[in-house]
Amino acid sequence: MEKKALALREFIKRVEDKFGGSVESIVLFGSYARGDYSEDSDIDVLIVGDVDFYEIMEIVTDILLEYGELIRSNIIRARRNPKKERQLYKNYPN
């Protein structure tokens, strides 16, 4: 299996092991998602969930040291706000 794919699998495994149910999704984007990557391309991922930036960077660093592959991660915290959801439902009746 390609080294980049192994690095990505290991990254996902470590993030899921570390944060468990706090991760809603991990999405591949950028050149690998489009299929126009080169040998020097990094791996771009979006993590949706309640995760700690610094702990993610530790995982990124470990993967870089172990596999020689850079994973650039962006984080979106997925926090629900029930009050805003109720307001949205009020504004958009069935």
TrEMBL record:
Q: Which residues form the Polymerase nucleotidyl transferase domain?
A: 8-71
One Pfam match, given by its short name, reads NTP_transf_2
GO MF annotation list? nucleotidyltransferase activity
InterPro entries given in the database record: NT_sf, Polymerase_NTP_transf_dom, Type_VII_TA_antitoxin
The cross-references to PANTHER family, in alphabetical order and at most eight, read: NUCLEOTIDYLTRANSFERASE, PROTEIN ADENYLYLTRANSFERASE MJ0604-RELATED
Name the UniProt record assigns to this protein: Polymerase nucleotidyl transferase domain-containing protein
